[in-house]
Amino acid sequence: SDMEHQLAWGVLSESTHRALSVASIHGYLSYEPWLWASMVDPDALAPSDYLVGALRAEAALADCCDSGWLRRPFPESIQFIDTALQQVAANSRDGVLSPEEQRRVAVTLYDKVMEARSSGLWQQLPLIIRESVLTALLDDSLHPIPDGEVRAMMSVELATVQRVTGRPEAARALVERLRAFEQMGSIMGAVVATSAEILFDLGEADAALALLQAEHARLADETGENDPVTLAALHNLAAVHTAAKRFPEAIDLYRQVLDRRISVLPPAHEFIRATRRDLAQVLSECHQLDQAINVYEDLYDDNLEAVGASHPQCIADSLSLYR
User: Fold this and answer.
1) What pLDDT score was predicted for residue 86?
2) Count of CB atoms within 10 A of residue 40's CB?
3) pTM of this prediction?
4) Rounded to whole angstroms, how far apart are CA atoms 281 and 290?
């Protein structure tokens, strides 16, 4: 019960309180080396002081595990025994860590995540660790992530992870936040596209289309209708119409993209070929076979010019033409 948890908290040592307070900022589950780094004073530059801090951090984590608050579910991970204990530690940390200390812990975690993303370590971590850490970083109370594209990218990554870990409602809430980013014009196209994909997977095709339409309108106004980024946004919009089985709308948009790309790009450019390919597939799917054959033949000519008859993509497109 909550009362029992509070009583259990009260008998812990000061060092254990500090360790659990730091752990609560990291979330329910974290990567232990990052937690350890957050517990060692980064300003203790003297080797002897750093060593003492490291030993104290190790001892405090051991006490947290021995007292039944934390456990190591798999190598290099650290986890609260249950979410109720994490909540007790989170609710109590204002009496243990100063606001500056809490902010430093959150910023240290953010820095470690960014380092891991650059090194490739992030992609190797289990999804449940990435989910927990991203949830912690996106907590508005400490706000360690700068506003703008990085925050938007982490939000959409968390929503993507939560689709896999079985929390679609959490993913839905995150996408709503991403739509607010989009309305402020502070979210880049790749994030918009992924957000729309998540919405579509959640059964909200109209919301996905509205998001992409707003992004295309914004880009067209800022950079022009024929800008490559604007055309990519229009292509994404056509793709969602296709996925939603709205073929007439998809065909119309693909034709717009194709005409504009032909007008601004070199002949047989890869973007032109990609648009022809998508258009031909939609025409085939809605049984407009004569038109589909015409587009596939144009695609074949482009493939010959760009990559040659023996290229795998040319062969695959040729097989599509004769199916």
Assistant:
1) 92
2) 19
3) 0.62
4) 12
